[in-house]
Amino acid sequence: MRRKRRARWVRIEPWHIPVRLVTGAFILNSGLTKQTADETGATQLHGFAAGAYPPVKQIQPQRFVQMLSAGEITLGAALLIPAVPPLVAGAGLAAFSAGLLGLYARTPGMRRERSVRPTEQGTGLAKDVWMFGIGTALVLDHFLGAHRH
User: Fold this and answer.
1) FRET label pair with 42: which of 10, 11, 117, 148, CA 20 to 30 Å apart?
2) How far is Cα of residue 114 from the mean position of the Cα atoms in its chain?
3) Can you state the angle between helices 61-80 and 16-34, rounded to 10 degrees?
4) What pLDDT score does 129 carry?
5) 145: helix, coil or strand?
6) φ, ψ for residue 82 (rounded to 5)?
7) Are residues 48 and 100 in contact, defined by beta-carbon separation less than 8 angstroms?
């Protein structure tokens, strides 16, 4: 007995398009740029990440940057490819940006004393909160969006 396969369509809302394009291109560029990181750059990036996430210390700096680059390229592509469901792309983006916000929260000198407000040095990481908002919005839209009613 043969079952008919139903086509599974990925539902893309119009508002998904600009946020996925802009965020995907930004992250893809970051990942491609890291592919050519020299030893000094890899060591600095590794040290910064290891300060916030101690298990990173066990990974060699160049290997860490290669892994980070691959992850960013994969996430950027997932956001840019319409066949990737918004739920999947959004969950990946929310997880990635949560890691960046963890760097912001755990690294000394990024925040003003007794505050979540950034110092001048912390602004570069604090601004990544927009990616967390976009990822969360894509996930929530899957569960609460108007198309669900």
Assistant:
1) 117
2) 27
3) 160
4) 94
5) coil
6) -60, -25
7) no
- How many CB atoms within 10 Å of residue 43? 16
Mean pLDDT of 23-38: 97
H helices within 35-128, ranges in order?
Answer: 39-52, 61-80, 86-106, 123-126
Token digits of residue 1: 């007995």
Q: Which two tokens stand for residue 119?
A: 């110092």
pLDDT at 33 over 70: yes
pTM: 0.89
Cα separation, 74 vs 101, whole angstroms = 20
- Judge whether residue 7 has pLDDT over 70: no
The position carrying tokens 């469901």 is 85
The predicted pLDDT at position 14 comes to 94
Rounded Cα distance, 45 and 5, in Å: 47
Distance CA 147, CA 142 (A): 9
